[in-house]
Design a protein that fits this description.
Helix content: 10-25%
Structural class: alpha+beta
Radius of gyration: 17 Å
Shape: globular
Number of strands: 11
Strand content: 15-25%
Distance between the termini: 22 Å
Number of helices: 6
Number of domains: 1
Length: 273
Amino acid sequence: MKRIGVLLSLIFIFVAGLAVTGYVSATPSAEFQEINGELFDDWGICRTRGFGEDGFYQISETTFRPVIAFESLGEDAALAYSLGEQIASEYPDQLQRAEAVFSFVRDRVNYTTDIDQFGYDEFARNADELATVIDQDGVGYGDCEDSAVLLAIVYKGAGFRSAIVAGSGHTASLVYLPDYTKANAVFELAGEPGWVWAEATGKKNPLGWVPKEFIGVQIAAYEISAEALVPSKPPTAPPTAITDKTSSVQPFPFIGIIGLLFLISLFRRRRAR
């Protein structure tokens, strides 16, 4: 395997009262409220906008915090998390389990743009909402952030550490799998190697396949855990990326703070591979 190490700055936010909210179950949002043409869920998170303190990814000028993932963790864990637990019980081998989780999401979520499915340029669903559709119909529909959030939550339920990454025009998941040897690139988060890219938007993608445009470039990463479901301003420290010295791929020069337009482009439509 061609081993490529990429250092991603890992954004940790520890909030007092983790997973303490007014809701005890991360079931699909019972009711959406429209405010100024945007839809907000039961947790007060805007589903039609990724940026801002109440956006589903809380994009700021420098970074992001995928708050929508917290709707399916901790005390709010429900169907998506339990799917991971079920897969874990069926696959005691860690590597086989990791591939089984990936295959489940890749094969059960058909890539569909938000405008085609919901009539909005953006409309993010939490992991339990998408998992419920899959449970009822055998298949679900979503774009890159829908697949990334579902993957990250199912991986947590299956006993893995997971993260969400945001790059120009795209988002995906990472899973901590240091013994996995099939990936075409291996990532380091905050100096910790062993993170594997999970790209579920293409039916032929294997676990560990990384689009070449995300190798050796600056990219933001956020390891998910149960956090408070409240609007919150993400930290201002910009993410950085440095290619490992053992790699033949050279890093792009560090360009400082990532601009707002760069991260907003995360949610422009990307064709499924």
